[in-house]
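Exercise: predict the structure of this protein bound to protoporphyrin IX containing FE.
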Amino acid sequence: MLSLEEYDISPVTGFLPHDPPLRRLSDPYFTPWEDMMDDFNGLLLAGKLRAKIHKMPMLNHKKLNTVQEYRRAFLILCMLSHSYVWGKHEEASETLPANLAVPWNAIAEYLGLCPVVCHAAVVLWNYRLLDSEGPIDLGNLTTLATYSGSLDESWFYLVTTAIESAGSKCPASILSCVNNIQDGNYEGLQANLTTIRDSLADINDVLHRMFEKCDPYVFYWKIRPYLAGWENMAEAGLPLGLIYEGVNDSIWSAETDEYADISHLTEGERLLRQYRRYAGGSAAQSSLIAAFDVAFGVEHHPVGEKPTTSSSSPLVIKLDTATTTSPSSPVDKHDRYRHLPSTRPADELDHSGTSSGATTPRPPYKRTNRNAFLRAMRKYMPEKHRDYLEDLETAANIRPFMMHLESLLHTGEISDEERDLIRLYNDCLHQLKLFRDKHVQIVSLYIVNQARKGPNIAHGGFAMEKKKNETAADSSAKTPVVSATSSTSSTEQQQQQQQQQPLNKKAAHNVLYPQTSLETHPGIREGSPSAKVSSLFPQLGLAKHVDPKTGVVRGTGGTNVMPFLKQSRDETADMKIALDTTGQQSSSNSGPQASVSKSWTDMLLRR
Ligand code: HEM
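Solution:
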């Protein structure tokens, strides 16, 4: 592997930048952006943000000089662009104007990111130290920017920043582990694993503090909506993603590395080529947590699958994910944890709609991470951090080494020191599993419960103003949409709603933020660019899928996320190595019989 610095990782601050992020772009050329940031929350609240953005000049990103400036500019454009798209009490915009889209796209390219908000922008590059000499911890941190202007949002980011700080020694310790295993340096390895285990314990302490100052209601209804991207967002009126005006107006060929003439393309084809679909910001894009998985060889599989090596031919066991739909169900297409649409909808014309969102060249080694969603998250990590993970995949030797020690354990040739190393490895996995336990609890409280309960006020802060010509019948049809979302989603209530509200274009537009609703609308607004594109290219298959049983297009709000997160947690625990050798195998990868293993130690380890 390269040195830490070459991966843009600091031995002191880890994936956080070595020096705190810039608070402003000092070059007066960028004053229009910084001025927008000064008034950002106020403009959004006053409903003036979009108009003001339309008046902003197109700035040239090449005037940015340092990587720190690029990062600051990226954060500004994440703030402005997501607020522009989602608005406040406004209909989502399907188009991002060129004065945001063009520089954002170029700056993202420079940083090796996608032009969409990501963990790096709001967590790694969005903090300030209150006491510049003090530590990067929750007692000394504040944010540079938030969408909602709330302390809850600051806390949400800062807890995650503090987690990155608590784990800051780990990227270096992981590299040392690899080297110490190569050199047979047990003492060094023991020290590294101890550092990682203790850091993980600190990380868990910080994660637990999320509850202190981030209210789940505020998170779900006021913060999360702005972090959404434009993948699987048909209900928000973005079935094809977002139009990045002025971006990639030409066709680039990988073979010739040249831009081809596009004058032969029709207007519709050119429009289609400007759409991009990107996932939104999520701590699933944290390179730190991903690094633990890679280092310890945690195997992540497609949701609902658990391979076994117990038979001569590899088998895949379907896990009992009671709340998930069967893979053949049309609803499954909207499950972002299983199905990844292509980033460029235009590609679907050539690939007959096959998923290319997570496609990366086949690596020369066996990936431990076969979960498409988790892998796709890597393209939202800064390029050099992604490189660290990719290189670590080839270099990681901790798990193979532990498997070797396990075989010594079985033959009785293991030394006490080696036994301690297995114990430490298990302790690290245990802490990572505890992290995922706590995280599952958080998601259940901050997302699933909130979606079930519904907003305190009917629109949850994301209603669109009632249209003047709306009839009383229309508005009464709206209310059940809200209550069906917010209640315990009783099928009876939904059916009633379906009777009251026939599935026609007169049905109320989605008045809630899309990730919170059970939707009955195809999500293509009359007269919108996507309506035009979908009529020109019916092969894109934008027709809605209605579940014949419930009559709704899909239920989000947590139904898909929990099986994914619980599986990820269980996969972590599955990697522990059973130290009791009385007829035991490794708890890892040993097929179904391992899961019915009955020893007390094994039971403890599994917990
Ligand atoms: C209010 C707090 C949080 C909520 C509501 C939340 C929610 C979620 C959700 C919904 C996912 C599924 C992926 C997605 O749809 O984006 C996810 C995944 C993930 N989150 Fe969080 N998250 C929270 C805090 C954190 C923090 C502080 C971290 C620390 C870095 C974190 C790390 C992860 C990771 C690593 C994943 C990928 C799944 C895995 O590795 O098991 N999350 N989170």
